[in-house]
Amino acid sequence: LSLLRFLSAELTRGYFLEHNEAKYTERRERVYTCLRIPRELEKLMVFGIFLCLDAFLYVFTLLPLRVFLALFRLLTLPCYGLRDRRLLQPAQVCDILKGVILVICYFMMHYVDYSMMYHLIRGQSVIKLYIIYNMLEVADRLFSSFGQDILDALYWTATEPKERKRAHIGVIPHFFMAVLYVFLHAILIMVQATTLNVAFNSHNKSLLTIMMSNNFVEIKGSVFKKFEKNNLFQMSNSDIKERFTNYVLLLIVCLRNMEQFSWNPDHLWVLFPDVCMVIASEIAVDIVKHAFITKFNDITADVYSEYRASLAFDLVSSRQKNAYTDYSDSVARRMGFIPLPLAVLLIRVVTSSIKVQGILSYACVILFYFGLISLKVLNSIVLLGKSCQYVKEAKMEEKLSNPPPTCTPGKPSSKSQNKCKPSQGLSTEENLSASVTNQPIHQKENIIPLLVTSNSDQFLTTPDGDEKDITQDNSELKHRSSKKDLLEIDRFTICGNRID
Questions:
Q1: In this predicted structure, what is the pLDDT of residue 31?
Q2: Proportion of the chain above pLDDT 90, given as a percent
Q3: Contact (Cβ atoms closer than 8 angstroms) between residue 452 and residue 333
Q4: Who's near 384: CB < 8 A, 6+ residues apart?
Q5: In angstroms, rounded to a whole number, what is the distance separating the alpha carbons of residues 61 and 64?
Q6: pLDDT at site 80
Q7: CA–CA distance, 319 with 436 (Å, rounded to integer)
Q8: pTM for the model
Q9: Where do the TM regions start and end (predicted)?
Q10: What is the b/e burial string over 19-58, where b = at least 16 CB atoms within 10 angstroms of the residue's CB?
Q11: Phi and psi (nearest 5°) for 308?
Q12: Domain ranges of the chain
């Protein structure tokens, strides 16, 4: 064996990639998955953002009308007599409570001075503001996690049948807790918007750059962790809520800046590059984060269509006869997005920034309100149609014909399961089209509907692929046996990703 022969062997040595075809095919599929992630992720994000927009517009458009109808029924009830044991339907009671909370918190926000808060934050150092902004983001997630529990407790306490043994502290304490929560959460979001406004108006833009870099720190904290489909669903819902909230915060910042410059349209073009930079950094961070999470955890891009079908199922099921919750509340439970504090803050900023004087101004306000109603109705119709399409594609129509679980927690009832079967005379498509257009039917009072769980909590785990070896399949089956369903993932676990 000589050096010349060794060099000749090194220069002419060959190898065949087809001897390890499965490995290289898997590597190629991973590349294709990373390339598909931006498109599939943005489909989910756009659908989720429009869901949040629909729940947000509901507070400004349909909720006042529903409150008016509920009060009208309450005032005209003596004319019709007490034919029903309830003065108001449970949904009407919840609407009145939401409206009263909204009005009280709006008047309470008048005692919070936005200008003093702005100058107080502006006088702080850059590093201190960066720490404050991070603390505000954590506090916002904690408030969102606990806030919907407070509101749900209020709604259930106010509408619970009176025949049962009292197991609560009363409606009035729950009501004051809800008012205090909405007020504090609105102040928290106002501080966030003020900090963002200070970053926009700083001369060297250093604070804005540091706040944007905080998004890239999020990649480090999530990419190199173990994720399953349920954990990724939590993160996707959190990203949807965070992106929509950032859009509303940017709107508030633009309104405050335009007011300071007497609504000069030239100043809007000064703000436009910074707004685009913040939005672009948010989108880029989400794409990179989800792309590497799916790569490191062998999750296919098709999982985002499952997530989208899960969100669509919530929308369609809320339009059924046996609906157990309002749609805006289901969005709050799923994504952690609670529209009441954000709506209080936006109304406060708009009313302080825009002065309405004269008949023409009031006419413009009325036309704008009708425009919001038209946008809400159009958005709801399009979302409902798309949701029905996604539910059919996921073959989940049969689950829509099953009523929500009506047994008490911890005591499953076999009789109720036998009684509640889908109708045999209609096809699944007819059930789907008929269920989303009818009003909910009032159920018997001896049945307790659950607020958090539903029949949709039995859904969806699809295989990641058929190209894995036997050991990977066995480990994946072990993970799936202990996995919760996607529709059980809500704001309870949205504050931090629980890693098994």
A1: 86
A2: 28
A3: yes
A4: 315, 316, 319, 436
A5: 6
A6: 62
A7: 4
A8: 0.77
A9: 45-72, 93-112, 175-200, 337-354, 360-385
A10: eeeeeeeeeeeeeebbebbbebbeebbebbbbbbbbbbbb
A11: -65, -40
A12: 36-401
